[in-house]
Amino acid sequence: MADRRSEDRAGADDRSWMDRCADDELGGRGHHRGRGPKDWSRDDQRLYEEVCERLLHDRLIDARGIEVEVEDGVVTLRGEARGASDPALALRLVHETPGVKGVEIDLKVNPNSPRFLTPAKAEDDDGRTDKSPMGYPILPT
Predict the structure, then answer these.
(1) Phi-psi region of 101 (alpha: psi -120 to 50; beta: other; left: phi over 0)
(2) How many C-beta atoms surround the C-beta of residue 13 within 10 A?
(3) pLDDT by residue, tens only, the chain of 141 residues
(4) Structural contact between residues 123 and 131, judged by C-beta atoms closer than 8 angstroms
(5) CA 72, CA 100: separation in Å to the nearest integer?
(6) Strand 66-71 with 74-81, pairing
(7) Pick from 118, 103, 112: which is nearest to 55 by CA?
(8) Measured distance CA(84)–CA(109) in Å, rounded
(9) How far apart are CA 90 and CA 77, in angstroms?
(10) Which of 24, 82, 96, 116 reaches 20 to 30 Å from 17, CA-CA?
(11) Predicted pLDDT of residue 20
């Protein structure tokens, strides 16, 4: 008697789901991510919070000099960027935020802005800080 499972699988696609998804994308039948219900949109306050969270949590961008405004789903970024790649990265992060209808950027690159200066380290009472051989401060016990 033949194995019924092998008969049922005859002609079945044995590729992984990732391979099938990749073939669908190449064939113009892309995924449905980012396609919400009809007439769906996010409240401006919620968009503001989401954009700020994305800027806050991204490891590559220093967002301390960026001001975020949202009006009718259009996000405006103004202020100063620390690095030359920060405006492009901020633009990508905002574009990837669900519900954003458009982005306007007015960021000037200024790595020497006081906004990006780190506060001075506290020194010991005698005016010096003990450091390890690697240069890290040694905290008192």
Answers:
(1) alpha
(2) 10
(3) 555 554 455 556 678 877 877 777 777 666 666 667 787 778 999 999 999 999 999 999 989 999 999 999 999 999 999 989 999 999 999 999 989 999 999 999 988 888 777 665 555 445 556 666 666 676 666
(4) no
(5) 9
(6) antiparallel
(7) 103
(8) 6
(9) 8
(10) 96
(11) 79
HSE of 31, CA atoms in CB hemisphere, 13 A: 8
CA 49 distance to own-chain centroid: 13
Spatial CB neighbours of 112, under 8 Å, sequence gap ≥ 6: none
Amino acid identity, residue 66?
A: I
> Rounded to whole angstroms, how far apart are CA atoms 26 and 120?
53
Q: What's the residue count for the chain?
A: 141
